[in-house]
């Protein structure tokens, strides 16, 4: 039996890693099992925390070329890249209080939803200050090599293609479990099959982490559609977008409902016939659980591009590589119920709403192992 707590560490670079960690924490709590959830960046100095998290967000929204260059530069096995090894060292140096936190809490297993805590724990293990297990939960539908570390004991992945990629990189087959990406329980129960009874075609437009100008352009295109629409626009924490929308008057045939940060996104997903969103790993996974077809726009290269391409290949989404393709793509979907229904079925097929419970079951099978035994 487990005598010491499980740690669920993440890094707040984007919202997805935090959301996946929260989903796992919920699964442990529901089973009456103790788990500690924490942001590894909370153990760093404010300047490093700001640079690490804010730079990612800013580049993701405004500088896709920089994101792509960084992705390609770091998408190499770490043993072959002095740059990655230096960045590992730099990050570890700036979150040193995290190591003390792990030691004080006598952690025997860490379930990481970001690669940063896993590399810190790997370094601790090599120095003899951590004797527990290191598990990684992959939160995108493509694999960046920075996630791969020889000291990771187990990987929980969303689908078969990533399993094959890990195998090709030399990871042992018994270290890989296909579980899906964990979502919080409110999304896990969001399937809305049989609930569509509205007269107006309803679009859920997520403006979070998409530039204001792109959101406004999509709204203008929606306004030019001849059919009547209901648009649920969620700005998230982007208060500036809501301010710019104050002067926007939608055409009479478009019913526009504006939201800031919301706690009822599962309900909005259940109301929608189609979602327009940036393809972050968690938001698209949540939409799959709601059997919600998607148009994917403005991905961060290349990790979100891989999400978009995978979902398009599997039939659950259409990817607008160029934003100018949006009007044609939208008309195609909104005017062809058969395509939308096929996409709904594909989303339902891909959905793994029980991913957090699957991971929990694997973690607790036979008790949580200790490397001391």
Structural notes for this entry:
This protein is of the alpha/beta class and 373 residues long. Helices cover 46% and strands 14% of the residues. A six-stranded parallel beta sheet has the order 2-1-3-4-5-6, with helices on both faces. Strands 9-8-7-10-11-12 form a six-stranded parallel beta sheet, sandwiched between helices. The protein is globular, with a radius of gyration of 21 Å. Mean pLDDT is 88; it is low at 368-373.
Shape designation: globular
The major sheet is characterized as: 6 strands, parallel
Instruction: Summarize the helix and strand pattern as letters.
Output: EHEHHHHEHEEHEHEHEHEHEHEHEHHH
Our count of helices gives 16
Main sheet: which strands, in order across? 2-1-3-4-5-6
The proportion of residues forming helix, as a percent range, comes to 40-55%
Tell me the Rg in angstroms: 21 Å
Number of strands: 12
The parts where pLDDT drops under 50 for at least 5 residues are 368-373
Overall mean pLDDT:
88
Secondary-structure-based class equals alpha/beta
Strand content: 5-15%
N-end to C-end Cα span: 13 Å
Per-chain topology:
Elements lengths: L5 E5 L5 H15 L4 E5 L6 H17 L1 H11 L7 H13 L1 H9 L4 E4 L2 H13 L5 E5 L16 E4 L2 H9 L7 E3 L6 H4 L12 E6 L5 H13 L4 E6 L4 H7 L8 E6 L5 H7 L2 E4 L3 H9 L4 E3 L6 H11 L3 E3 L6 H9 L2 H14 L4 H10 L9
Parallel strand pairs: 1-2, 1-3, 3-4, 4-5, 5-6, 7-8, 7-10, 8-9, 10-11, 11-12
How would you summarize what this structure contains?
The protein is an alpha/beta fold. It is built from 16 helices and twelve strands.
């Amino acid at each position: 039996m487990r005598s010491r707590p499980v740690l669920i560490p993440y890094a707040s670079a984007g919202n997805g890693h935090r959301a996946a960690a929260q989903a796992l924490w919920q699964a442990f709590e529901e089973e009456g099992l103790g788990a500690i959830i924490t942001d590894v960046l909370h153990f760093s100095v404010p300047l490093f925390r700001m640079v690490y998290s804010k730079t990612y967000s800013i580049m993701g929204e405004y500088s896709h070329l920089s994101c792509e260059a960084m992705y390609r530069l770091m998408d190499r096995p770490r043993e072959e890249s002095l740059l990655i090894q230096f960045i590992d060292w730099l990050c570890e140096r700036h979150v040193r209080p995290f190591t003390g936190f792990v030691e004080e809490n006598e952690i025997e297993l860490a379930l990481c939803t970001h690669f940063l805590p896993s590399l810190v724990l790997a370094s601790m293990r090599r120095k003899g200050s951590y004797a527990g297990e290191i598990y990684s939960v992959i939160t995108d539908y493509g694999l960046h090599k920075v996630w791969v570390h020889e000291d990771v004991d187990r990987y929980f992945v969303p689908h078969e293609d990533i399993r094959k990629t890990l195998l090709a990189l030399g990871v042992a087959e018994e270290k890989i479990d296909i579980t899906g990406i964990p979502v919080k329980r409110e999304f896990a129960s969001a399937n809305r099959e049989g609930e569509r009874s509205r007269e107006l075609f309803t679009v859920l437009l997520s403006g979070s982490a998409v530039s204001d100008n792109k959101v406004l352009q999509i709204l203008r295109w929606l306004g030019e559609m001849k059919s009547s629409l209901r648009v649920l626009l969620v700005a998230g924490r982007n208060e500036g977008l809501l301010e710019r929308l104050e002067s926007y008057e939608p055409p009479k045939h478009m019913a526009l409902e504006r939201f800031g940060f919301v706690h009822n996104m599962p309900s909005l997903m259940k109301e929608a016939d189609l979602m327009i969103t940036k393809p972050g790993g968690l938001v698209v996974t949540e939409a799959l659980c709601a059997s919600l077809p998607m148009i994917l726009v403005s991905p961060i290269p290349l990790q979100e591009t891989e999400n978009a391409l995978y979902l398009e290949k599997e039939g659950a989404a259409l990817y607008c590589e160029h934003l100018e393709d949006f009007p044609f793509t939208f008309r195609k979907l909104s005017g062809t119920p058969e395509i939308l229904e096929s996409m709904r079925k594909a989303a339902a097929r891909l959905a793994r709403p029980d991913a957090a419970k699957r991971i929990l079951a694997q973690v607790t099978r036979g008790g949580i192992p200790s490397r001391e035994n």
